[in-house]
Write a structure and sequence with these properties.
Distance between the termini: 42 Å
Radius of gyration: 23 Å
Structural class: alpha+beta
Bound molecules: ligand 9MR, zinc ion
Number of helices: 17
Helix content: 25-40%
CATH topology of one domain: Glycosyltransferase
Amino acid sequence: MNRKNFDTEPRSPRITPFGIFVDQLGYYPDSGKKAIIPFECNGFDVVDMDGNVRFSGTPVSAGYDEASGGNVWTADFSDLAETGSYCVKAGGKTSAMFRIGNDVYYDVFDKTSKAFYYLRCGCGLDKRCAGVWHHEKCHTAPAKLWENRDVTLDVSGGWHDAGDYGRYVTAGACAAAHLLYAYKMFPKAFGKQKLNIPESGCPDILSEVRYELEWLLKMQDSEGGVYHKATTAQHAPFVMPEDDTAEMYVFPVSSMATADLAAVCALASGVYAAYDKAFASKLRGAAERSAEWLDRHPEFIGFANPEGCNTGGYGERDDFSNRFWAYSELYALTGDLKYHSKLVSAMKEDFPLTALGYGEVGGLGSLAYLLSKQGKDVNLEYKLKSMFRRKAEELKKTADKSGYGIAMTEDDYCWGSNMNLMTKAMIFAINDAVFNDRTYRGYAKRHLHYLLGANALGISYVTGLGEFRCNYPHLRPAFADRIEECIPGMVAGGPNKYLSDPFARQVIPEGTPPMKCYADDTASYSLNEITIYWNSPAVFVLAYLCGN
Ligand code: 9MR
Ligand code: ZN
């Protein structure tokens, strides 16, 4: 396995040894359970680890599946409820090993949550918490303002965004918000979680999110505006973070970053109030200062990389959804009617009210409003609820047509498709939580099953989890540490039919169906990078399934 020269020698994609696809982590005893068989056969068996047949059935045709470009049959073994380890066999082929049990997702829930710790910047990861993946502290030198190099400031801390070492406010705010909502909506799931991180005193996930929030606070300037990102001028080579010693820069304020900071700080203020009043009030103050800045700057201040910088842009075309999210969170926190009228005005613009990604954040604003304990305009509440319900109904229709049971259209297989996958599952989870509608639970689960192996490549897209799993993500420390086993719990971007990097184009033949446009190769940033906001929706979905 040559991991050193990936930039000159991309490897052929590793092929799954399995011909039948299952969630490699497993199924709850009382859940629906379907293996996916991409070939015709007469019958299937579910076999335990001693080789005994424990269930037999006949596969049912699910017809032609567009996204994977083939006919699909499903093997329904929902009636098998006994705890244990199994695999599915049919037509001389077999699935990966999986378990049936009430605890099958605990490990993936913990590891995807712990992934944020491994991405911490500005501190060392010690052996006690990080095991073999420990490293020295990184990126602690003072940074320079890109536009005025005489000014230096301390912006250490937070999480590395992704496979690169950049730290971007809008991306960070979105990931932190997914985790905070996961905690707010499904607190039970986090009660028993032990992430083995240095802090204690509150649920581990809140200590972890606080690490990011403390950094976000440093990105706010004295006027309340928020710098868009802190990165070096160019992406670092594939070295350990402590060996990336290039000059760190802080890039200009954007209105998206400012609004997102106001939003996430307001949200966090409400959550941390129960643990640390001083921190909660600091967050509230920051949120209010950024909201005042937004008042003084009604115009859109976007972001594009200046000449000489090639790190992530996270540009957006407008800041409508960001402002809506900010006012909605501030209203939920304070009950101040001025924020209510601002959120209503923000809604005059056209933007999706259920979007949960890092760019379009309208869904986070809607969620803030719906979960708020403040007085609500009934019409507005009804409208936002209907939007979530309508979205779920639309997704349900798409999922019912898919052989894999997921609501992914062909266009959803783009850069970071696993974020699309997991935010769709979030929509189902939100519908269950807000309307008490349990019918959506199975839909959410099937999206997780796809992530964990019930997909056309039979691969688990989470490092360290599943019998056949991705292990070579485009993630600098995972390459530079020379450790064969990747840092666990990282969600890969996943199939991207646009093949947006040279390595992807080199190894994936033209005409490959969207669901198969993936290679577990360090070289491919458009197929196999990891990011904080691809992990965070997975944590949300797992919190829902483990704690609800
Ligand atoms: O996740 C982003 C994806 O949706 C975009 O298509 C892509 C190209 O603009 O950028 C991705 O974001 C990258 C960011 O700019 C820098 N850090 C790594 C991110 C994941 O590749
Ligand atoms: Zn760092």
